[in-house]
Amino acid sequence: MTATYYDVPLLKPPVWTWEVPLYFFVGGAAGGAAIIGSLADWTGTDGTLARDARWIAAAGGPLSAALLTADLGRPERFLNMLRVFKPQSAMSVGSWTLTAFSASSTAAALPPLSAVAGPVSAALGAGMLTYTGVLIGATAIPVWNENVSLLPVHFAASGMGSAAALLTLFGHDEPAVNDIALAAAAVETLIGAAIERRETPAMAPLREGPSGWIIRTGGVLSGPVPLLLRTASRRRSWRTAASVAALAGSLLTRLGWIAAGRASARKKP
Amino acid sequence: MPTTAFLTDSTLCIGCKACEVACKEYNQVPADGYEFSGRSYDNTVHLGHSTWRHVAFVEMDTALGAGGNAGEQISWSFVSDVCKHCEHAGCLEACPTGSIVRTELATVYVQPDICNGCGYCVVGCPFGVIDRRPDDGRAFKCTFCYDRQRDGEQPACAKACPTQSILFGEIDELRARADERVAALHARGMRDAVLYDPRETSVGGIHAMFIVRGDPAAYNLPPQPEVPTIYLRDGWRSAAVAAIAAVAGTALAFVARRQLGEGDGSRSRARLTS
Hints:
The structure holds two protein chains of two kinds. By secondary structure, chain A is an all-alpha fold. Chain A has ten helices and no strands.
């Protein structure tokens, strides 16, 4: 039993509101879509898949920037993010990645520019998929920094799963899209199991209280549910259901991690 | 320029909160409401966007030299908490705009004309000091009275302190004085007096040190503060692995499926049934 100061929490909870978890969701899906679009094009898969994936990325990039800007205390100062580049700040690296991704993904959706901008947006999309994990992992919040190695993988799988789900909902039945969705769901299932197994005090907000429920619901919807629905039947309606579950799961996962961070900061020291 | 620092000595603090008032007045920090906490005589409770000095009221068993005339009474220990101006500051490292800077006095300063209120410093501080002011949108914390120091004045809190519990000066000098003070307190029987200056952690020491009696955690001073940049290496390594896996996995899916589809010689075969 260590001493405390009237159980007053030591840390300040994150000030981020709904825009930031929604941005994590949109940015992850857009990043995944940019990768799928570019590689579908490169391997000569059906042209409409590459086109649709690039449009998702092109819509998601600027939307991500808008969400991140809306969450700033002084949105009119967004450009101050581009005053400096600080490798030691994941927020700085992320702001530059997001800005470059928005520009390149928009350019990639325009046919004359897609050959050059496509691969660039795919590379930056890989950054969009993963950097948000580092962003929250490299903080003083115990439940986040305890999972700094897990989060980038978790968010990458979540983002790839969302991108594949969106493309499925857009009517894309290419087996490769199904493979990507299955792989993402499999990784999410493993990560969910890993979270349940680790029982350190810092992990408590992932299992207890409202944040625990959000995380668990999100985990089931983005892991086992689409995995089972996509393997159990080859019917299109099941893939549609799997895609809706994966998207809802990915959004809940992002909301859950922010909620868990808030709960973690409020725990008594 | 010298590296300046605070040494806040709880054994001299009488809990008058003159430092809190002087800070608010001088820096024109907004009021933070009339809330009765019920926690001893401390209704300030913690540092925040509008509280840059906070006097903690710690109640403990009667102890030599710290009040308590009769056995059933408690003895009070006060300490005026403040931004630690860390050697390796989490808020400064996290700040994406360069708003938070290290001044020529080695203090950590938020430039209010640059801050865009992203909130990343809030989760970067291992001491829970800096916070975003909701009605303003920017992050605020102790400035170490940068403007006063530039004019050769000591910070407002130190100036107002009537018992010299808040000492202000050159950091090495204050560290030497802190060691002397702790030794003197030990010699007077206060064996539980300790200097709080986590130099062995990744924070690398603080420019606002504290002398407290007993466990620093009782004053909400964390035993093991860490600057969050120590987590970056694991994070980016994992991100690189995940990014490569996502791109390679996607490429593999497309290449493998194309070869399967081409083997059949039919584009329609390369689709799932509907």
